[in-house]
Specification:
It contains eleven helices and ten strands. The chain is of the alpha+beta class and 381 residues long. It has a four-stranded mixed β-sheet, covered by helices on one side. The protein has a four-stranded antiparallel β-sheet with strand order 2-3-7-6, covered by helices on one side. It has a two-stranded antiparallel sheet with strand order 9-10. A hairpin with a 4-residue loop joins strand 2 and strand 3. Helix 7 runs parallel beside helix 9, helix 8 packs antiparallel against helix 9 and helix 9 runs antiparallel to helix 11. Bound molecules: flavin-adenine dinucleotide.
Length: 381
């Protein structure tokens, strides 16, 4: 398999890199401390096409593929993983679920605004009692003739972009007792009565990306907002996660690359015992291993993206790529902190943030333990 980027893909990566360096890099610490980035950033990213990377051109997107989305995720993750996570949740989860299951009419209603960043999307699968076991969802959706709509009650935890989202895709039980075959997905506009934002999480990392609870109290959703077939919403959600894992893998590669670059620069500047620390064998060995693992992680993620772009089966490759890249992101960030010594432990340098942010990638969209479960199931069939 050829992993070289085409000229067009390299140009996309360069363009996103320049944007991230100019528009994001100067604010990374400020936004981390403020626990949020300005809402206008979504619009700026929309102008560049980053909010509708895979939305077809006929619906206002740029109509690119999984490999291009991976390069976008990597370049954003290299500078600010929290901004990258917001973009991943919008493109991979909300838009991703619409891409899997929306009717043409629904695509016409939602894609043009989501593609420009005028609207931001979030995705609610997780609940307080339904995390890795997402099929344990307790949010209920009951059809009401009287109200001429689905009445949703329940709450969703850990919704990335939830505080500022205009539209949420949420899953709820429609046929109790049928387990994974009794859950449906709904598109909810944020101004729908009965939809409100609950607690905002105060997180270890990815702090500039908002993570909130969504509360649904007698929230009436019209029939035309049922997303996909009734009772097949969970089946579709699993497809969304397979795709989303490629993005989280790519984001992790970006974290590893960003931490590696910072460590390479620092190791050549910092002098101890009369020499740059890069001259010590222990530091050189760390840098070599960090670079090799980052490159391997990238190859695994690109492989999954390439399989997807070719229309081939990518479930196994996506899980492997996400598992490996997220653990490499965490490991490289930790090694980078070590290379910075005491300065790696303070906020004046970027590596402590990479270290905090990286951890999320081993948890979100399926923990490392769940990836191993998915991988072993694929291997054992
Ligand atoms: C910052 C952030 C953003 C998020 N964004 C979103 C979002 O936008 N939308 C959304 O729906 N969700 C989101 N999530 C939720 C995320 O996907 C879940 O946190 C994740 O799936 C794990 O669920 P949990 O936290 O309930 O952990 P649990 O499922 O309770 O897991 C706890 C531990 O048990 C392990 N475990 C569980 N089951 C098994 C098993 N069968 N075998 C072995 N080990 C197991 C897990 O690996 C983990 O180590 C987000 C989470 C965070 C932290």
């Amino acid at each position: 398999m050829d992993f070289r980027l085409t000229d067009e893909q390299s140009l996309i990566a360069e363009t996103v890199r320049e944007f991230a360096e100019a528009e994001i890099r100067p604010h990374v610490r400020e936004w981390d401390e403020a626990q949020g980035f300005p809402t206008e950033l979504y619009g700026k990213m929309g102008e560049l096409g980053l909010m509708g990377v895979m939305i077809p051109e006929e619906y206002g997107g740029v109509g690119l593929g999984a490999l291009e989305l991976s390069t976008v995720m990597e370049e954003l993750g290299r500078v600010d993983p929290a901004v990258a996570l917001a973009v991943a949740a919008h493109n991979g989860l909300c838009v991703g679920h619409l891409s899997v299951a929306a009717s043409d009419e629904q695509k016409r209603r939602f894609f043009p605004k989501l593609a420009t960043g005028e609207w931001v999307g979030c995705w609610g699968l997780t609940e307080a009692q339904a995390g890795s076991d997402a099929a344990g969802t307790q949010t209920r959706a009951e059809w009401s003739e009287e109200r001429n709509g689905w009445v949703l009650n329940g709450s969703k935890t850990f919704n990335t972009n939830g505080a500022r989202a205009h539209v949420a895709v949420v899953v709820a039980v429609t046929s109790p007792g049928l387990g994974t075959k009794g859950i449906s997905a709904f598109i909810i506009e944020a101004d729908t009565p009965g939809y409100r934002i609950g607690r905002k999480e105060d997180k270890l990392g990815m702090r500039a990306s908002d993570t909130v609870e969504l509360i649904l109290e007698d929230c009436v959703v019209p029939a035309e907002n049922l997303l996909g077939e009734r009772d097949l919403g969970f089946v579709d959600a699993l497809k969304v996660l397979d795709r989303g894992r490629i993005s989280i893998g790519a984001l992790s590669v970006g974290i590893a690359q960003g931490a590696l670059e910072a460590a390479l620069d620092y190791a050549q500047e910092r002098r101890q015992f009369g020499k740059p620390i890069a001259s010590f064998e222990a530091i050189r060995s760390k840098l070599a291993r960090m670079a090799a693992r980052t490159r391997t992680a990238r190859a695994m993620v690109y492989r999954a993206a390439t399989l997807r772009a070719r229309g081939e089966s990518f479930k196994l490759a996506a899980s492997m790529g996400k598992l490996y890249a997220s653990e490499v992101g965490m490991w490289v960030a930790e090694e980078a902190v070590q290379i910075f010594g005491g300065y790696g432990y303070v906020k004046d340098y970027p590596v402590e943030k990479f270290f905090r942010d990286a951890k999320l990638c081993t948890i979100g969209e399926g923990t490392s333990e769940i990836q191993r479960l998915v991988i072993s199931r694929q291997l054992l069939v």
